[in-house]
Design goal:
Length: 251
């Protein structure tokens, strides 16, 4: 099968499917980001984080079929939607640990060759810290059984900058042995993985690197350099746990 190109959602315009109510909310009080409870109340956003829709059986069926083996090139709307939460750096890795979609400005948000084995330890080994993307992150919360890990960037002497939050959400971890012996025909397969990076609550858009700052202030939803990020480790962990669960489609 010809290799498709993973889609970068970084510069996509605001989705036309996003409700007028949510668009208005994003621009209130000098600009606001959404969190999990806000996603659940919007038809478009709730679908993209895996929430079943009582009024759209066709979509529910498509979602189940499309994600039977994890993320793929049709999963990019998940990353598109996470932008409204202030996540402009994200990546989906499929069951072969290949990029299926990403959201990245410059420098590129992409693991080095040495990062992949470390990412694959999430959910398998105790990971009090992880050094990936050229930085060290200290664990804030982890659920090994779910394969969800959230950490905060370690402070480095002499370096100023906002605290980053890095998160991993892995799906299908318990089905890998079955996959290897069936459709993968013995090939190496991995738990499909969502990787996200954002900034700790209280950080303003004006404090973050220019590439992401310019994308956010130019997004057209009313965000300014004074708009504050909302995620704390616990709330980001809750969001990623929800996604990991919903994107593990039951047979």
């Amino acid at each position: 099968m010809a290799q498709q190109q993973a889609y970068n959602v970084f510069s996509m315009p605001v989705a036309t499917q996003l409700s007028a109510k949510k668009k208005k909310f994003l621009g209130k009080k000098g600009g606001q980001f959404l969190i999990l409870k806000d996603f659940k109340k919007d038809d478009y956003l709730s679908k993209n984080i895996g929430m079943e829709n009582e009024d759209d059986e066709a979509y529910n069926e498509w979602f189940q079929t499309n994600h039977k083996y994890g993320y793929n090139y049709n999963s990019y709307n998940l990353l598109e939607s996470l932008r409204y939460a202030g996540i402009f750096e994200s990546l989906l890795l499929n069951a072969y640990f290949q990029p299926a979609a990403y959201c990245s400005g410059e420098p590129a948000f992409y693991p080095s060759a040495a990062d992949f084995p470390l990412i694959d330890k999430i959910g398998k080994e105790d990971m009090p810290e992880i050094t990936v993307f050229g930085k060290k992150y200290i664990r804030s919360m982890e659920d090994k059984d779910m394969g969800v890990w959230v950490g905060a960037s370690a402070k480095v002497d002499g370096q100023e900058g906002p605290t980053e939050l890095l998160g991993f959400a892995r799906s299908y971890a318990k089905q890998l042995d079955g996959w290897k012996s069936s459709w993968a025909q013995g090939a190496a397969v991995y738990a499909p993985t969502l990787v996200v990076r954002t900034y700790n609550a209280g950080t303003t858009i004006g404090q973050i690197p220019d590439s992401i700052k310019n994308a956010m202030t130019g997004f057209g939803v009313g965000w300014t350099e004074d708009t504050k990020f909302r995620f704390q480790p616990a709330t980001l962990f809750g969001m990623l746990s929800y996604i990991a669960e919903k994107y593990t489609v039951e047979e």
